[in-house]
Structure formats: structure tokens, C-alpha cells
């Protein structure tokens, strides 16, 4: 829609850098068709002997392999603390059939497209498999398996060395695609959500008041969400108020230094080895101003995201994680259903 209705190269007042930036952002959404071609090309060769490239197999490897290695190593060097190698392939595999249809139809009729906002606030209470979302990936998986069977048959009947090399190259290509397809299918397995919102690790001073304690207990939050928090308190004196179901009043130090006062209910309590208490709290309903202050504290405070780093990416480890994902997902799902 942007390229057809608001083409940055036809708009006045934009700099060359802005035009290139808008163009780059729109071209990214065209990955659907190339990704589908990437899946179908080796299968078409194995099933119907359609040659995708008029070149010797070794020549293709010599030309393509250095590019793949350099691209992978470059991405790993720049984003090793933020992204894991090969997982973008799984993302594109999952969305490729849908993006291919949407981008093509929008290119033909840019005003016909509709945007549906993702539903917010829902909770998944049980395991289920979203077949409606996964059927394109299942179809790709079945085509790949059929291609591998045809590969074995063609290998047994082939006497040409070059043809055997082509069969092996396309078989390896298909096997790589099958791993991505299986991971894409695993995305459709929905697990129950134990929490209404994600917990953000954040240490903020907090005061706890209750009718059962004479003075406020000081502590610090271990994690926060707009619906609750995990507090770390010193276990001094009587801690009877920490029993599940107890009603307390929290004063969390806000972003501007003012306390955010919230009513809360104790949900669980655990004593640590260093004589401290970990107390899980669920916030009661609060007015919009307090919720706004809490959200600003959790997500918008200076330096909130600066220290967050993913474990340093390992190319081999990341790919092994992808290879073993279907088995791990199947194991977790089986144990969860039991």
C-alpha cells in the first residue's frame, strides 16, 4: 500500500536518505514469494526433474556457500547479543504463505487490503493446535518429505555422477527446509498462559503496610507487571501477614520519586536461604493514573532496556537449538497434557 498509494519516490519534500529508508522498510515485506520459491525449487527438481539452475552442482556450491557463510557470520558479529542465528528463517517460513498472498493482492488492488488489530488481553487456558494457521507449513512439510522419498528412488536409479551430485545438493536443501517447516508447525502449538502479563525483571524500592504489622516493611521488587509483583523482604520478626490471601498496601517508588500506592493480595510466599522472603503479590483494581504511572515505571524508565542482553549467540548452538526444537516442543506438550 505504501509503494502504490504513497510511493516515497514520488512524494515531495523527502530527502534521499528518507526515500531509501521507506523503500527498504517496504521491500522487507516481500519475503513471502522468495521464501516459497526457496522451498519449492529443490522439491520440483526431485519430483519432476525441473532444473532451477543451469550450472554444475559444484559450481553452485562454490558460488553460493561463501555468500551464505559471510552473511551468517556478519549477522552474528553485529547482532550476537540481540538475535539468534537462523531464527529469522523460522519467522519467514511461518509467515511466507500469508505474506505472499497479502502483498500480491495489495499490489494489484492496494485499496482492498484490511488490517485487523491483534486481540489484546486474552488468555490461553489449555493446549491446542492451531491447524488453521499451520496448514501451509504442513503442506510444505509433506512436499519436502515426498521430495526426499523421490530423492532416494532417483539416487538408486542414477548412474550419472553430475546428476547424483545434483540430487545430493537438492536433498540437503530440502532437509534444511524441512527443519524450518517443522519449527514453523511447532509455532501453532499453543500452551496455557500461567500469567496475565509478562514479568519484567526490575529492582524498585517498595514499602509494605498491613494491619498486622506496626511499621512498614521495606523491600525491593524482583519483577513487575501491571497486574502484580514479586517482592524480596527481610524476614525479621513476625511475617504472619505474608500468608496467602492477606490484604496489604504497597508503596512503590515511582519514576518521578513519588510513591505509587496500590492495594494488593498475597498469593504466595517463599523463604530463601539467606533468611529473606519472596512474596508474590497480585494488585487490586486501580485508577487510570496509578496504572499509567506503573506502566511508565515498568517500561519507560531511563535505562530500563539498556542492560537487557540475550546470551551471546553461537551459530552452531543456535542451529542445534532449531534442530532439536520439534522434539523439545513435543516432549513439553506431552508432559503438559498429562
Structural summary, described in words:
The chain has 338 residues and is α+β, with helices and mostly antiparallel strands. It is 49% helix and 16% strand. It has nine helices and nine strands. The chain has helices spanning 2-5, 16-27, 32-48, 57-79, 87-108, 131-157, 161-186, 288-300, 315-337, and strands spanning 128-129, 189-190, 200-201, 205-209, 217-225, 228-234, 247-253, 259-271, 276-283. A six-stranded antiparallel barrel has the order 4-5-6-9-8-7. Strand 8 and strand 9 form a beta hairpin. The protein is elongated, with a radius of gyration of 27 Å. The protein starts with a helix and ends with a helix.
SSE topology sketch:
Blueprint: H1 2-5, H2 16-27, H3 32-48, H4 57-79, H5 87-108, E1 128-129, H6 131-157, H7 161-186, E2 189-190, E3 200-201, E4 205-209, E5 217-225, E6 228-234, E7 247-253, E8 259-271, E9 276-283, H8 288-300, H9 315-337
Antiparallel strand pairs: 1-2, 3-5, 4-5, 4-7, 5-6, 6-9, 7-8, 8-9
Rg for CA atoms: 27 Å
Q: What is the helix tally?
A: 9
Number of strand elements? 9
How would you characterize the largest beta sheet? 6 strands, antiparallel, barrel
Which percent range describes the beta-strand content?
A: 15-25%
Q: Widest sheet: strand order?
A: 4-5-6-9-8-7
Can you tell me the residue ranges where pLDDT is under 50 for at least 5 consecutive residues? none
The overall average pLDDT, rounded, is 86
Helix-strand category: alpha+beta
Question: What is the 3D form?
Answer: elongated
Helix content: 40-55%
What's the SSE pattern? Answer: HHHHHEHHEEEEEEEEHH
Distance between the termini: 47 Å
Amino acid at each position: 500500500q505504501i509503494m502504490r498509494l504513497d510511493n516515497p519516490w514520488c512524494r515531495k519534500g523527502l530527502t534521499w536518505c528518507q526515500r531509501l529508508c521507506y523503500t527498504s522498510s517496504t521491500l522487507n515485506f516481500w519475503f513471502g514469494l522468495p521464501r516459497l520459491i526457496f522451498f519449492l525449487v529443490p522439491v520440483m527438481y526431485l519430483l519432476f526433474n525441473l532444473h532451477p539452475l543451469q550450472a554444475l552442482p559444484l559450481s553452485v556450491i562454490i558460488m553460493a556457500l561463501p555468500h551464505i557463510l559471510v552473511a551468517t557470520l556478519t549477522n552474528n558479529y553485529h547482532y550476537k547479543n540481540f538475535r539468534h542465528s537462523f531464527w529469522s528463517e523460522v519467522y519467514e517460513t511461518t509467515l511466507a504463505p500469508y505474506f505472499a498472498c497479502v502483498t500480491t493482492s495489495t499490489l494489484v488492488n492496494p485499496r482492498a487490503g484490511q488490517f485487523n488489530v491483534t486481540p489484546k488481553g486474552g488468555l490461553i487456558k489449555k493446549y491446542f493446535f492451531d491447524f488453521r494457521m499451520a496448514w501451509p507449513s504442513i503442506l510444505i512439510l509433506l512436499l519436502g518429505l515426498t521430495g526426499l522419498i523421490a530423492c532416494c528412488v532417483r539416487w538408486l536409479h542414477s548412474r550419472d555422477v553430475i546428476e547424483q551430485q545434483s540430487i545430493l545438493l537438492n536433498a540437503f536443501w530440502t532437509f534444511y527446509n524441512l527443519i524450518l517447516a517443522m519449527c514453523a508447525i511447532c509455532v501453532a502449538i499453543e500452551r496455557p498462559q500461567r500469567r496475565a502479563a509478562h514479568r519484567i525483571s526490575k529492582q524498585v524500592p517498595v514499602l509494605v503496610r498491613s494491619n498486622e504489622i506496626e511499621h512498614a516493611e521495606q523491600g525491593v521488587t524482583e519483577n513487575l507487571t501491571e497486574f502484580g509483583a514479586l517482592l524480596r523482604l527481610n524476614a525479621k520478626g513476625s511475617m504472619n501477614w505474608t500468608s496467602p490471601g492477606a490484604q496489604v498496601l504497597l508503596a512503590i517508588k515511582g519514576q518521578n520519586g513519588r510513591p505509587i500506592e496500590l492495594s494488593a493480595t498475597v498469593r504466595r510466599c517463599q523463604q530463601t536461604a539467606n533468611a529473606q522472603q519472596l512474596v508474590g503479590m497480585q494488585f487490586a483494581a486501580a485508577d487510570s493514573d496509578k496504572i499509567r504511572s506503573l506502566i511508565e515505571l515498568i517500561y519507560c524508565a531511563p535505562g530500563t532496556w539498556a542492560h537487557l542482553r540475550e546470551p551471546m549467540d553461537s551459530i552452531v548452538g543456535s542451529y542445534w537449538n532449531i534442530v532439536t526444537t520439534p522434539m523439545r516442543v513435543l516432549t513439553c506438550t506431552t508432559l503438559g497434557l498429562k
